[in-house]
From TrEMBL, chains A, B:
Limits of the Acyl-CoA dehydrogenase/oxidase N-terminal domain: 66-141
Domain of life of the native organism: Bacteria
Family: Belongs to the acyl-CoA oxidase family.
Compartment list: Peroxisome
Gene3D superfamilies, A to Z: Acyl-CoA dehydrogenase/oxidase, N-terminal domain (1.10.540.10), Butyryl-CoA Dehydrogenase, subunit A, domain 2 (2.40.110.10), Butyryl-CoA Dehydrogenase, subunit A, domain 3 (1.20.140.10)
Acyl-CoA oxidase/dehydrogenase middle domain residues: 148-257
Protein name: acyl-CoA oxidase
EC number: 1.3.3.6
Pfam families, A to Z: ACOX (PF01756), ACOX_C_alpha1 (PF22924), Acyl-CoA_dh_M (PF02770), Acyl-CoA_dh_N (PF02771)
Named cofactor requirement(s): FAD
GO biological process: fatty acid beta-oxidation using acyl-CoA oxidase; lipid homeostasis
Entry coiled-coil feature ranges: none
């Protein structure tokens, strides 16, 4: 309570100033390659329906979001990503951006759009062939045919390879028998299933000629066009959820449902009329991961939507902090703005800085994906794997960042942050599932970690673990860090010539992060080998190293984020804006180093004095960036009309 | 995705075993002094209403919770805490426990009960006198008179001393004029205001005879007995919230509302008929904090309810982890339980251990409060301040722990954790506001930090800051750590004679935590003095040290938690149970040390080798406690019928 002011005497806030940076300049830098698409999205208005969504029951909310889906579809925007043959422009990057922009306004709509266009129509595009495209794709894109992406089951979510639903081919009738053999084979959390879906892309174990061929996708009608449940199908309702209640998640069970041979999405595996199985991809494992490759776009979308929801929350909390005063200062008797308290700055500013870092990394990822998927011929498998790993890592970090930051914003707004009229509750509840859907974050980071290890092991094939340990200990050889942005960006770092030797020296920061990643990967490999050698068995060997491996993956993403930030600054031509971004980048990277300083210290990467210097630098950067708070959130470029929170009407200091 | 199993090969889980500890023995230890009251609460059943609350709109939910409030009232349990003169037993501890137990089942009911019996009737009891007790108290207790506690305003929440509502005495009419002079004077987030409240305890600036006497509380009717809004009062509705939608939070504005002279709750300040003001407490500041002292019980309740919600969430997540298998192990082809993955253990087990620590600290706090408030005469002011500080610290740490742990549990249950049928969404949403209501956590920790400083400064009165800095640097004198449990507990530590010198050495742990607290308090004092001396002004001096001061407060609570845990173990007579609790205590304290190891390293409190030893010990403790997971959550003693989550039906391994 107010007693606290007795000892810590407070003074009034310093006057606002902007350091000459126009938020629109920042917006242009953040908007990046698809700036025009973002501008078009900003101009697209959804009606402000009454009552607000948070006052609707589940059924009313679902109906509203379905109606909004049609409004959004009518804008022509979601079609952009599809091939020209079905009315699109084949602009995958633009399609992604369009989806992600919904993250600012209506996350139920974003997810429902992602299910319909991204997963359902996306799977038909990627896994189907000419016949499927012709028969279903345009209807799906135009919302004449609503669909589901039925992969996850009660018993298997992350471990898709072990799903239990079967698709057994019968050459007599030339049909597949789709069946859920156990209660745990039930398809679960399936978007569009509870209310709207007519056709489902069902993932099932394919059997033909008495042999199993692994997971494949088939088109299975779950409702008749007039909305009745299809024979043999049981549809359940997942009911109320923490958030995203405008999305009708449901459950699907199949009791020997027959579908024609053409129902198989057969780009990567064909069944002839007589039941003969063929595939252009020989290895069943590679085939499986090729099919799962369709998920990468979903992960990129979720990452982007999580970032946009985070920006929305930060905009609310920062604007509130620039208006809300609490406790009288000792000098002039004025009450002090929340934004002037150091503890409040520490709550919001490092998170804001990391949000910038994530934005730049998201732009790079979108661009890389676009180029890879729209290039000629089949993408290079190595580049494809790298893209998947990058998407997995960024999705995990963006969504955890969203959960933590939106929570911090809620608390930073006190009781007001708990009221639905201030939007934060919905942002929090809607984004919460992002950390575990489209790939559980822990599983995704493990995938990243495994990729790092594989790259490492290949390099040292033939060395036994003792040799490996010696090499690692001597630091004589190491993991080759593959930088993710142009060499020229790094070359230009040298010419900055400022703050050399201090904690804001960019080369020092980069080397620190690279060294951490390298060391964590090397030692994870060593520990895995040693663990296997000590006879406790392979699970124990893995399990002991699991947290270490996840930390290596996280360190990798941290390094990629810093590189993306640097490339983003490098592309900024306005000197004042670039200077501001340099400070934001410092705050981002130094607050990460501060959080991990236990590791750096115990591995003798930094001295105790340097660790304290990092903490002081974070404080100093909070003070330095405090006058730019309004600029930094305005830079996100969220249209004022989209920020509906009562407490967050824009502050425009003179 | 499942690719991760390629490199890290997994083996099946080890068989369950319980190490001979009966969960009921644990429950008895955790239940503590008011075990019988807890047992009575466990026997009290609320009807399992259909549809479940999460399917109700706001108005239906409010109606249900009001009905449940009457059912709860009819049990006679909430009356326990009140004086015998109004039908109670004066058992404050029992009253607290009864309220907190609602945290397991219906947090809206818990909060509504807290508003009615704790805040509204509690304020009449504590701040009123004979007349008020006679006229209102029994009706309030029996729910014939529903009431509000109208303290917070739009403009002032934490800083109650600056609220703007006025109560101006008019000797002509012998009435007070209650008025909201500005828009920011509106009372905000007031429980019971939007729907049910008839009478409000209104906090306002008291004016009489042309002089201001600071904040006082008055009884102001806001509705007529037939439910119409009282003249001059405007009632608003806070509408939908993130959670707790069964509580009708509202807004109150007063337009020169007249109430009789007797409306003043006049225990600590009286206004005579002619307007003369008198008070038994001379200092206005002391008077203010004496009145706010009523808030301490609310904070203790919120802390307890947060802990109980945390236990509920952990029970769900742990039972799920003991049933859910994912990814096939390499040895026997069986799928591995989530509970066997180290990353999963690290998510749940340290949080579970800290929940035990918090429970023991909560028991101590409740007991201390009970003894202090039910003792003869006025409580000793120093003991009262100590109690308030302890309540503030524990409330902050318990509620942040709840937010983080319930979130971790939600994620640990994947998509299932997002479904309302699995309870975690409601636990998360309902407890979210706990970190900022009944005192914002940051403000509360600052209060704790200030208390530590004051105690410290008093010790060194007369030394200037240079002398202070020198003393602190030489570590020649230091903060006297006042241990919070009996000396005998510490004496018995010496006789354990086990694991000496290692990181599980209890004396080492205790000294480490004590040393951290002492150092942080001392250096905060030094920095504050130095900051004031350097001419940047008092606000800058405070602001630079604010995060440091909050860290000192947190270190203090950490030390208190460890002491409470040790006292709890000391009171356990079953050797196997005590041994299990010793390991849980180790995990709690070492995971805290691990989290703070950056600080310990940079202050040369531990070596790099020791820091790594701590991390290894946390891993080893996860492995050691893994077989006791079911026992540890069963030990919370939540009746099976209260754990409604579909995914969490009890596991009873043979």
């Amino acid at each position: 309570m107010s007693e606290v002011i007795d000892v810590p005497q407070l003074s009034a806030a310093e006057p606002e100033h902007r350091g000459g940076v126009d938020p629109q300049t920042l917006t242009a830098v953040l908007d990046g390659r698809w700036a025009a698409v973002r501008q078009r999205s900003r101009a697209f208005e959804l009606p402000r329906d009454e009552p607000p969504s948070y006052d609707l029951g589940t059924e009313e909310h679902r109906a509203r979001v379905t109606a909004r889906l049609h409004q959004f579809g009518a804008s022509g925007m979601p079609q952009t990503a599809f091939p020209p043959s079905v009315g699109g422009r084949g602009d995958i990057g633009a399609g992604q951006i369009t989806m992600e922009m919904l993250g600012y306004r209506d996350l139920s709509l974003m997810v429902k759009a992602g299910v319909q266009w991204g997963l359902f129509a996306g799977a038909i595009t990627a896994l189907g062939t000419e016949h499927h495209h012709r028969t279903y794709l345009r209807r799906a894109i135009d919302l004449d045919l609503m669909g589901c992406f039925a992969m996850t089951e009660v018993g298997h979510g992350s471990d898709v390879q072990s799903i239990e639903t079967t698709a057994t081919y019968d050459p007599q009738t030339q049909t597949f028998d789709i069946h859920s053999p156990t209660p745990t084979a039930r398809k679960e959390y399936i978007g569009n299933a509870a209310r709207d879906g007519e056709l489902a892309v069902v993932f099932a174990q394919l059997h033909t000629g008495g042999r199993a061929h692994g997971v494949h996708a088939l088109l299975v009608p779950i409702r008749t066009p007039d909305g009745r449940t299809a024979p043999g199908v049981t549809i359940g309702d997942c009911g109320r959820k923490a958030g995203l209640n405008g999305v009708d998640n449901g459950r699907l069970t199949f009791d020997h449902v027959r579908v024609p041979r053409e129902a198989l999405l057969d780009r990567y595996g064909q069944v002839a009329a007589d039941g003969t199985y063929t595939s252009p991809v020989q290895s069943p494992t590679r085939r499986f991961f090729t099919m799962l490759g369709t998920l990468v776009r979903g992960r990129v979308s979720v990452s982007g939507a999580a970032q946009n929801a985070t920006k929305h929350a930060l905009t609310i909390a920062v604007r509130h902090a620039l208006q809300r005063r609490q406790f009288t200062g000792p000098d002039d008797g004025e009450e002090v703005l929340l934004a002037d308290y150091r503890a409040h700055q520490r709550r919001l500013l490092p998170a804001l800085a990391t949000t910038y870092a994530l934005s730049f990394a998201q732009n790079e990822l979108t661009s890389t994906m676009h180029d890879l998927l729209t290039g000629e011929g089949q993408p290079d498998p190595r580049a494809q794997r790298e893209l998947e790993s990058r998407a997995a890592g960024l999705k995990a970090v963006s969504t955890w960042h969203a959960t933590a930051t939106i929570q911090a914003c809620r608390e930073a707004c006190g009781g007001a942050g708990y009221l639905a009229e201030n939007t934060l509750p919905q942002l929090k509840a809607d984004t919460d599932v992002f950390t575990t859907f489209e790939g559980d974050n822990t599983v995704l980071l493990q995938l990243v970690g495994k990729g790092l290890l594989t790259r490492y092991s290949a390099q040292f094939e033939g060395l036994d673990w003792r040799g490996m340990a010696r090499f690692a200990a001597e630091n004589a050889v190491g993991v080759a860090i593959e930088r993710t942005v142009a060499r020229s960006v790094f070359e230009r770092l040298g010419s900055r010539g400022r703050r050399e030797g201090g904690v804001r020296d960019r080369r020092w920061q980069l080397e620190l992060l690279e060294d951490r990643e390298r060391h964590l990967v090397e030692t994870a490999a060593v520990r895995l080998r040693r663990g296997r050698a000590d006879g406790r068995g392979p699970f124990a060997a893995f399990n002991d190293v699991q947290p270490h491996l996840l930390e290596a993956a996280r360190a990798h993403v941290d390094r990629v984020l810093l590189e993306a930030f640097l490339a983003g600054i490098d592309g900024c031509t306005d000197p004042a804006c670039a200077a501001l971004l340099e400070s934001v980048c410092d705050l981002h990277v130094l607050s990460r180093v501060e959080a991990d300083r236990g590791w750096y210290l115990e591995h003798n990467r930094i001295s105790a004095a340097r660790a304290k210097e990092v903490t002081r630098a974070v404080d100093a950067l909070c003070e330095e960036l405090r006058p730019h708070l309004a600029t930094l959130v305005d830079g996100f470029g969220i249209p004022d009309a989209w920020v509906e929170a009562t407490i967050a009407q824009p502050v425009r200091p003179g």
